[in-house]
Every structure is written in structure tokens, then in C-alpha cells.
Amino acid sequence: MSTTAAPPEAPVGMDLSDYLRMLRAYWKAIVAFTLLATLAAAGWTVLQPKIYASDSSGIVVTPGSDNVSLSLAGDSLAKAKVKNYESVAKSRLVADRVIHALELNTSADALLGSISLKVPLDTAEIRVTAQSTDPATAQRVADAWVNGLAAQVEAIETAPAGEAAVEAGTAATPGAEPPANATATAVRVLPLGKAVLPTSPTSPNTKLNLALGALVGLALGVAYAVVRRHLDRRIRKAAEIERLFGLPVIGTLPVDHRLDERSTVLDAGTEMQVHDAGGAMGEALRELRTNISFLDVDQPPRIIVVTSSVQSEGKSTVTANLAVTLAAAGENVVVVDGDLRRPTLVDVFNLVPGAGVTDVLTGTAELADVLQPWGALPNLSVLGSGRIPPNPSELLGSRAMKKMLNTLAEDAIVLIDAPPLLPVTDAAVLSRAADGAVVVIRTGRTTQEQLAQSLGNLEKVKGRILGAVLNYVPTKGTDAYTYYGTYTAAPRPVPALGVEPQPITIAQDSGAEGVLEALGSGRRAKD
């Protein structure tokens, strides 16, 4: 089948369902970012000094008149003057007057930084807002600023003809009498009441800061989730494998905590337990068995290599349990330990280590002598690896290996537990002698690049890829394995007279005769 060795590109666009899955997958990180940003905003708010603000205002007026025309002209003059007086109100001249009046220990520039002015549109009013860490100071400065502005305007308006307003203002000192030759004041600034003593600070705004902190944290959390989603190349769903590689997923195996400590065969105490294996894993294995039988109806594969990209993806466990599932359906099955570097199948099936593949290939042992039948299912046999050779790849690619596999396939389905594809070439070499290879992928660990390289290694030797098995699929979360979770097996029948079935025990140093003897003792105990 057609695969690609190049790493697949990450999908460019995301639809709404992708975003929802992303949020569900990284919701803890998003909540953590939001809480941290909110706490940071709260801490920053606590450290900030409390600022109080007080408002005062004055209005520009002209001498009144009973004449309507003069009154309108005076109103227009006041509105025109207020724009000029706004700049006067922001000057150091007014600041110096306020400092002198209130005896403040600060500079004019510093005081100007705490003052804000506003002239409402189409009015002759000037509003002054004073800020301070002390509410009483803010109130006093606001009132004094309007009074200082009024005094400065009076000094400007009463200045001698021909002199600049700024010169007149500079010459005038707070509390000084107008010059003798001053003209009558045409425009004045009148204070509009007293400033109110502030009771609550205007800064910092606790609620606003916390809301902004939460929004910033939420945005950072979502950005983190998006970046993680695009940078995370680990395979998590069967749909990803089929979409990115065009590789059919023939099995999806959930997490089973009975396999946490070591690789083993599930429900392998007695023959009855093997046939009645239930739960999510049992149903998933039976589905895998069915899918393998339908891979090629006319020429079903008889020799199957089970491999993975790297270590610890569960290929040996999958091989052993698939063999048990096939045997439970009545098939004759032979499991071959094709890992001549780190053999594990003998330990998985709890059989006697010793002679195996290498002994048969070198001619030091006969095939029938080294096959070990498995106690719970007599139609299941295991061929161990034998002694570890110095040249595993050469032995696995030899004609003797192919002849041995063909001999076994005459009467049984042969499952070969092969080494990972990336560290060594053994699995790729074995795939040429087999009818096809099944690649085991561990959910959340195997990356897209690793799988692409593994499939490329099989393509180089023209090995046939039967499909992929997605292993260790979580039972909780966004990528949970849920189909079989609510469908439980029926209760197992209890033997008559309350006699519990006796487990079959095999001594570590027993051979094939010991296996048969253990089987016989188990059947007698059952009878």
C-alpha cells in the first residue's frame, strides 16, 4: 500500500469542533493561566498606592448688560476666552500660586502632573480634577487651582495696554494689588462652588484590574493551547493516522491497568477465562481479530509481523494477547519471538527459556522440539528466541528463517514479535518474509515523524503494511475510548457444586512434558 516517508504537515485550518476539542484537552492549562494572571493583577493592585480625585470648576463671565445684543456678544466673548484660559490653567503660573497658597512642599511640574483639565463643548466652563494620595489634599488643590486660575486671569485682563499677558502675570504676585494704571476687568473666572471631599479612591480600580487580568490570562491560556496543538506532533486519534498517512487502523486498544506493571496475557488463568475474557480490552482484541480476518478474504495473511516505531509501545503485549484471542476462536496459532536482541515473549507467556529461533536456524535443534504449547490453550504454541546471536539481522533475513516461517504457516497463523523499526532493521527484514506487518502506535507518545520514518523503512524493503493498531487509548478525556466502556460481558457461569476452577501452574524448570502434565492436573481438578 502507499505511504509516505516524509513527515506530514500540520493542518492549516481548524474548525469549531477542533477548537472545542483543543479547549477540552488543555482546559486545565487555560484555567491555570487565567488564575495566575488574575492573582498577578490582584497583587499588583494591592501594591499600588490609592489615588483620590476631587473636582472643582470655574466659569468665564463678562460684565452683564440689559442690552440683548451686548449680552450675546459677552457670551460669545466668554466662550472664545475660555479656550485661551485653558492653556493658562495648565501653566506653571497657576501651579506656583497654588503651591504658595497651600504651602505645599512640591514643584510646579510635579503638581501639574496631578491636575487634569476639561472644557465642555460650547460652554464657558473649565473643570479641574486634582489627584492625590490624601483625599483632603485633593480637595484643597482642586479649589485652590480654580482660585489661582481666577487670580491669574484677573492679572492678565488688568495688565497695562501694550504689555503681554504673560509678562503681566509674571509681574503679579499672589495677593498683590492691581497696578494703578490697570484697565477695568472685562472678563473674569468665577469659582462654581467648593470641591467635594472624596470618600473612595479612583485608582487602582480593583474590579477593572481583576477583570483585565482574567481576560489577559484567558487569552494567554488559549494562545498556549493553540501553540501546543500545532507543536504537539504526537498521535492521539485513529483519524489522524488515516488522514495523514492513508494507513488503515485495524485495531484500537484501550488502557488496561492490569498491564501497568509488566507485559502479560490478560485473563489467562484457565481456558474458560480466556474464552470469556470481557471488558473493553477483550472486546477490542476481538474486533482486531475480526479486522485481520477481513484484510484479504481471498488470501488472508498467515505470517504477520507485529512491530512498532520505538520501544515501550506495547507491541509484545499486543502480539501475545492477539495470539490468545485468535486461539480462543479455534485458530491454530504460533507466536514467534523475532526480537533476537531483547526477547520478551517467553516471560510474557511465563514459559521455559532456552532453545528457540536461533537454534532452529543454526541447525542445532528441530522445530518440533523447541515449540512450547501454552497451557491455557493447547492450539497456541510459542517459539522463543533462543540464544542471542551476534548477527540478528542476517539470521532473520536468511532463507532458513523464511523456510521455517512457511513451515509453521502450513498449519497455523504465525505472529512474529519483531523489534522496533527505528532503532534496528530487523523488523523491516522480517516483513519481506511475512505476508504483512502490523505497526503498533502508542497514543500520546508516538510522533508523526516517527511513524512516517517507520513506514518509510518498510517501504524501502517493499514490505506490505497491513495496518496500524492504536494502543493505550485513554478511557477518560477528549480522546477517550468509550464505545466498549458501557457494554459489559455477561456474568461467567459458576461450576456446579460450588467447585471453583483450579488455576494451571507451570513450574519454571518444566519442559513440554511439564506443560502437558500441568494441563492434565488442571483438567482433573476441574472434573
Brief synopsis:
By secondary structure, the protein is of the alpha/beta class. It contains 20 helices and twelve strands.
Tell me about this structure.
With 527 residues, the protein is of the alpha/beta class. The chain has 3 domains: 16-48 and 204-231, no CATH class; 52-191, no CATH class; 246-493, 3-Layer(aba) Sandwich (Rossmann fold), CATH 3.40.50.300. Helix content is 44%, strand content 14%. It has 20 helices and 12 strands. The strands form 2 sheets. Strands 5-12-11-6-10-7-9-8 form an 8-stranded mixed beta sheet, with helices on both faces. The chain has a 4-stranded antiparallel beta sheet with strand order 2-3-1-4. A hairpin with a 2-residue loop joins strand 8 (372-374) and strand 9. Helix 4 packs across helix 6 (135-157), helix 6 crosses helix 7 (165-171) and helix 11 (279-293) crosses helix 12. The protein is rod-shaped and about 130 Å long. The two termini are 51 Å apart.
Spell out the blueprint of helices and strands.
Blueprint: H1 16-25, H2 27-47, E1 52-61, H3 68-89, H4 92-102, H5 108-113, E2 115-118, E3 125-132, H6 135-157, H7 165-171, E4 188-191, H8 206-231, H9 238-245, E5 249-254, H10 271-275, H11 279-293, E6 303-308, H12 315-328, E7 333-337, H13 345-348, H14 357-361, H15 367-370, E8 372-374, E9 377-383, H16 392-396, H17 399-409, E10 413-417, H18 426-433, E11 436-442, H19 448-460, E12 465-473, H20 512-526
Parallel strand pairs: 5-12, 6-10, 6-11, 7-9, 7-10, 11-12
Antiparallel strand pairs: 1-3, 1-4, 2-3, 8-9
Helix pairs in contact: 2-8, 4-6, 6-7, 11-12
